[in-house]
Structure formats: structure tokens, C-alpha cells
């Protein structure tokens, strides 16, 4: 019986992953409004009934994709900071963290483009994305800024938002909005200046 249960769970996981992959393909190709559960089922090579057994509707599938991407891709950027290097070396930690934020892969960037593009008509999707990022990625870095003994920060939360915000803005302007030639900026220059600002003792 236990073997059958395990096999059932494995099959369910495989189908869930297939549906998420099919959903990603269709959302990125067609946009949110034009994507249907029929198209997702076809892309995932499963029946429409199977899609609905796993996800109640298109919105729940999209939000599941947000959860999946944040945990598997963006979430890895903010892996537990104490696992990276010694917590007594904030310059190394911050540089490594900044580079990994800026090295997020193209699929994630395309998904962010989709969310930004659809946020006017479907604000709940953008809110779901922001909520997920805030409770995972931001929570971890804010905690580090608050607890690192070598950082003398009067407001760790604001500093964390400035750090992440500057990097995200750079990524959006330079790559998502194709602004490299309009507002050129070397990433190392940005990272070095951010670290200097944070580490400067007031």
C-alpha cells in the first residue's frame, strides 16, 4: 500500500511539474488574458480535467507559478546567508548577494515582464508576486542587516530596501527596458558604491 501511495505522489508531482511548465510556456507566449486552461493542458500533455484537479482556475495556476519561481530561482539568491561565508565578512556576503540578484536567469526576467505588463488589468497577480518576494527574499536580507554585528545601521529595514531596490532598478532599466545605451552603468560600480554606503560607519 505504501509503495502505491509513493508512486501516486510521484505521478502527481510529475503532472504538477508538467502543468507548471506548460503554464509558463503559455503565459509567456500568449500573456495572461489570452492563456486558457485548454492551452495549458495541451502544452503540458495532460487532460483538461487533470489540470483542474491540480489547480482550481487560471489565477491559482499563475500564483502557483509565482511560488514555484520564487522558491526555485529567486529564492536561491537569498539562501540562508550564514551558509554562504562567515557572518563576520559582510563585504563578501553583500557582494556575493548583489551579484546573484543581478544574475537572475532570463526566464525569471520574462516572467517579471509579464507580471508588470499585466499588473494594470490584473493587480492581484502583481500583489501575489510582491507578497511572495517580501515574505521570503526581503525577510532574509532584512534579518541579516538587523543581526550582523559588523553593520552599524540605524534602520536595517530601510537599508535593506535601498540595497535591493537599487539592484532591481538597475536590472529593470538595463535589461528589461533595454536601457543600457541610454543610462549606461557598470554593475561593479553600482555594487561597490552600495557596499561602501552600507559599510561606512556614521
Write the layout of secondary structure elements.
Blueprint: H1 2-30, H2 37-44, H3 48-54, H4 58-77, H5 90-102, H6 106-118, H7 123-147, H8 156-176, H9 187-199
Helix pairs in contact: 1-2, 1-4, 2-3, 4-7, 5-9, 7-8, 8-9
State the major sheet: none
Q: Would you give the CATH topology of the largest domain?
A: Tetracycline Repressor, domain 2
List the uncertain runs.
1-11
Helix content: over 70%
Compute the CA-based radius of gyration.
20 Å
Shape: elongated
User: What distance separates the N and C termini?
Assistant: 65 Å
Q: Report the CATH superfamily of the largest domain.
A: Tetracycline Repressor, domain 2
**If you average the pLDDT, what whole number results?**
85
Which CATH architecture of the largest domain? Orthogonal Bundle
Structural class by sheet pairing and helices: mainly alpha
Could you tell me the number of beta strands? Answer: 0
**In CATH, what is the class of the largest domain?**
Mainly Alpha
Strand content: under 5%
What's the total helix number?
A: 9
What string, H for helix and E for strand, traces the elements in order? HHHHHHHHH
Number of domains: 2
